[in-house]
Amino acid sequence: MKINKKKGNHCQKICLCVCWTGLIATRDGDYYIVNGEKYCLFFFFGDLTIKHKRQNKTKKDYFITAVRTGKPGTEGISLMIIPRTEGVISTKLNKNTMNNNSNHKLFFFFGIRCDNLKLLIAYVVFRNVRVHKSMIIGAENQGFMIIMYNFNSERMGIIMEAVCFARVCVDEAARYAKTRDTFGKPLIKHQVIRHKLAEMARQVLAAHAFVEKVCFQMLKDPYGMKDKSIPRNVSLLKVQATKTLEYCARVLRYKWSLRERDVLHPH
Predict the structure, then answer these.
(1) Where are the domains of the chain?
(2) What percent of the chain has pLDDT over 90?
(3) Model confidence band, residue 17 (pLDDT cutoffs 50, 70, 90)
(4) What number of CA atoms fall less than 13 Å from residue 23's CA on the CB side?
(5) What positions belong to coiled-coil segments (predicted)?
(6) Given this model, what pLDDT does residue 100 score?
(7) Is the pLDDT of residue 202 over 90?
């Protein structure tokens, strides 16, 4: 089954695997026989949707997913494009479905509580699906490497968002401290508050400097295929950036007694 690249009228989605799901592909001549199940996630904000000929946004034309084509471990994983054909069954999960099934409760631990964020989850089952070998992305049993290289750019998006919101927390905290009076003087005049603001600013500036360094590296080698320090730096920077945001948001919320919505949506 060929993908129509000119018209661009096909829609695809990336499937993910959790501990109780997975796909196994066995070779059958020029085809693979795929069996197993996966979760398909689709995020969108507010009323923003992808215009597509199908009304059900969980029913995609193609699924991009990792499958087990070789031995156990990372060296036996391939990345495959699976078309929606006979044997592919997807079920849209809602809140009631996930409450009734303990396996589906995993997705409540994502911690996503933004008011405008919508999350659609589909449980996709593959039963004896025949997929041509040309639908393998890259080389066979090299899919894990492709996934890891792709994580670098995804993590950078999370990093920049975390550093940006941490900076907003510092700005909002300083603005609030200048307007709130306690014990006859502005809050910012108290030494302990100035220490908190200085610590927030220190962590944000350190994280921002690290971002500048990694971005400069990725301009020369976007996927970190040559410079092996890029995946390491991106992973460490993600930890640093998210911990910085966690600290700044906690100080802004509890020290200034602001609502959680003010922290998540400062503007």
Answers:
(1) 12-140, 145-264
(2) 27
(3) low
(4) 32
(5) none
(6) 52
(7) yes
pTM: 0.67
220 neighbors 179 (Cβ within 8 angstroms): no
Question: Which structure tokens are listed for 164?
Answer: 């940006």
CATH 2.40.110.10 holds for 12-140? yes
Q: Which amino acid is at 199?
A: E
Token pair belonging to 168: 């907003």
Burial class (CB within 10 angstroms; exposed 0-12, middle 13-18, buried 19+) of 85: exposed
The CATH homologous superfamily for domain 145-264 is: Butyryl-CoA Dehydrogenase, subunit A, domain 3 (1.20.140.10)
Residue matched to tokens 């950036």: 241
pLDDT band at 254 (very low <50, low <70, confident <90, very high): low
For the chain, how far is it from start to end, CA to CA, in angstroms? 47
Tokens of residue 163, six digits: 């550093």
